[in-house]
Amino acid sequence: MDCYTANWNPLGEETFYRKLELYSMEWGLREDLRDCVVAAAPYGGPIGLDEVSKLRTGCQSSATAAEPSCVPGGLWALGVTPPCRSQWKSGRLVHLGWTAGEDLLCIQEDGTVLVYNLFCEFKRHFSMGNEVLQNHVLEAQVFHTEFGTGVAILTGALRFSLATNIDDLKLRRLPEVPGLQKPPACWAVLSQDRVTVVLLAVGQELFLLDNTSCSVVSPPGLSPSAGPFLHMAVSFTHRHLALFSDSGTVWMGTASLKEKFCEFNTGIRSPPRQMVWCTRPRSRQRAVVLAWERQLMVVGNSSECIRFVLDEDSHLVPELDGVRILSRTCHEFLHEIPEASQEIFRIASMAPGALLLEAQKEYEKESQKADEYLREIREQQLLPEAVGQCIEAAGYEHEPETQKSLLRAASFGKCFLDKFPPEGFVRMCQDLRVLNAIRDYQIGIPLTFTQYKQLTIEVLLDRLVLRRLYPLAIRICEFLRLPEMQGVSRILAHWACYKVQQKDKSDEEVAQAINQKLGDTAGISYSDIATRAYDCGRAELAIKVAQGALGWGVPGCPLGCSVAHGGLWVAMRLFSSPGGLWGAMRVCMYTVVLHLKNELNRGSFFMTLQNQPVALSLYRQVGTPKTPEHPKAALRTPKTGNRDLGGENSGFGTGDWDGRIEGRVAALQNALDEFYKAKNDFAAKGGAGDTRAGTGRGWGHEGWDLSLHDTVATLILDGHHKRAEQLYRDFRIPDKRYWWLKINALATRGDWEEMEKFSKSKKSPIGYLPFVEVAVKHHNRYEAKKYAPRVPPEQRVRAFVLVGDLEQAAEAAIERKSEAEMSLVLARCSAGTDGALAEKLNRARAQLLKK
């Protein structure tokens, strides 16, 4: 602590940068990093490595010599978990990149993109089109936007092609650049106003390619002495752009090229190996890091720069609030010192947080100076601010001892405050426990507090599941007391689906482990687990898992309908098993039969039933509702001639259920006649609706004993959207009521994709705030954030508060000049983490009150 500022490097008068060592690296590489193709995922993500650089530079060599290695951010650092390796046996490799879901993309010269998971296990592949195949790939980039992970390609014909979302592949060929005779010196992908464009440099000219045109642009305020552009870098948020010219000048400005931040002459004319942004969110300093062979330089809004000597070849990984530096022996993090840490630890600082930290230290020494420091803070009425500064600074520290020292100071200061809310302090303690656990070298996810808050706990848990760190993920869920459906149950379901894929263990062992671990845990779909086992070719295991589910009394069909043809066989095996499971398996078998009926044509369906006597008997006994589209003759097949498989008592004939419905409809019709005779118009209209519902086309008995609204909701929950819309039109359900019903049902079902399509089908009669509220209610803030910008201005503050985006909420409140909305946002601000935002709101409110 005494030498805390020893590694601080000033950039200007008010900004400091420091470089922290995260891990000691033990790669065991055959070559230096400069001879490798390196790609690292953001947010402390894994590292992809190709040890043969000849594939990158274009030299002819054997493709089988390349070994892409997936190294999940430091897990292997001391040999605890060795890196995963895969022998490359495909085409010539051009580029490596990572998706937002941490899948490794390997882009080949022929335009084929191979997708691997974290463990170098092949998942799938896709092609960038015939044109790329014919002209080959010269250069490629993987980028991230709000649409997903995209790939941009420069072909041998000097044309650009890109796909903004590889999960919904739609290839776009960008316009030709006039006069382009050779590959551009540098190019980058920008995302502006939900449109993805390519910016490229040809000499001293910059060209911007969008969907339809190629335009020449120029950076404002560029020095006349600046020569051709050799390098460009886009910030992590796609908002800023940096350009390096052959005169050694770095130009920094907005990505829209409408505003210039600064310009700096490095004095080095050779192009850097890498140039990336290093800027903290909401920071006044904007800085760029440049890396040459043995030198690292940080330049920003200052006439001076910071220089670091590199002992070995390094690779820079841009992050949200800094830059990771990878080398053969070290993994470091370069970042700007946050304001809270500067205020507390700066030499001779008299900030409230600094005084409180000293007071706590003196108190431990039993010195009277503790009272003097504390009295000075209280006389200035700055004790709440001091506590908040210590809490906030603790979040930015990587060393646990420093974190503890700051939190002890905050706890000490809280003792002298009457009404200090404890939530911020408790939340920070929880967050630091989680961060310290995942930063451990055996886990190796070096997330910062800022990145963690941006990523959210849900995404972090998903990443732990991807790494198959199930015990740690479960402990975090239990520690944070997350709802079971969101936490433990979901992770256990992932674990079980992974467990059934393990070929080295017998079906009996795997089924026993799953049934013992899962038991009757709420929210776990044994159907998905059994289906996964069946898809892996382990039908016997699927049966044992389903038997275990029924043994625990888990409600619902234990086998998913995706089992399809094999599902009927599995259901038959379960029916013949001991244990008195006939009641449950009868439902299961009938579910599979109905699925086959919907999936197969009529001839194939009844031929399949002929080979399963028990299933055929069950179908004859229960049958299905009578509909005009399924006459009795449909049950005749070529094999049986005119013999009716369903018999006289088939469900398509006059089965019990149909007779019951017809009787109820007849009774309704009689009641309707009596109401008309009695001239009771109100009751007659209601009865007419019920009768029309009973005889309605396409939904049979599903609506009996339910109200109209419940019927619509049930149909949506079951995925029958067209039938629900038919009822909506037939019974003239008000638009607002129907929209409310549908979004609630879709959210309950978890069908977020359908909900987004529905929101775009036409202008919402209920607005878009209900979409936000429903998504938040179902613990899905990621989906809720999609609708918040579409909420009208008068409700936008509430929407952003609901999704937890306090910064956007504050901007909306200030823009509307609403004191009530500013107060609402202030009430949600934490003294420890949102101090700057609270200060901004207080200033805006004070200005508003003056008027």
Automatic annotation (TrEMBL):
Keywords: Coiled coil, Endosome, Lysosome, Membrane, Protein transport, Transport
Coiled-coil portions: 356-383
One Gene Ontology term of the molecular function aspect: actin binding
Location (main, coarse): membrane
Subcellular location(s) per record: Late endosome membrane; Lysosome membrane
Membrane topology, as annotated: Peripheral membrane protein
Record's keyword annotation contains Lipid biosynthesis: no
Vps16 C-terminal domain sequence ranges: 590-847
InterPro entries referenced in this protein's UniProt entry, alphabetically: VPS16, Vps16_C, Vps16_C_sf, Vps16_N
Function: Plays a role in vesicle-mediated protein trafficking to lysosomal compartments including the endocytic membrane transport and autophagic pathways. Believed to act as a core component of the putative HOPS and CORVET endosomal tethering complexes.
Family stated for the protein in its record: Belongs to the VPS16 family.
Protein name from the UniProt record: Vacuolar protein sorting-associated protein 16 homolog
Species assigned in the record: Ficedula albicollis
Gene name in the database record: VPS16
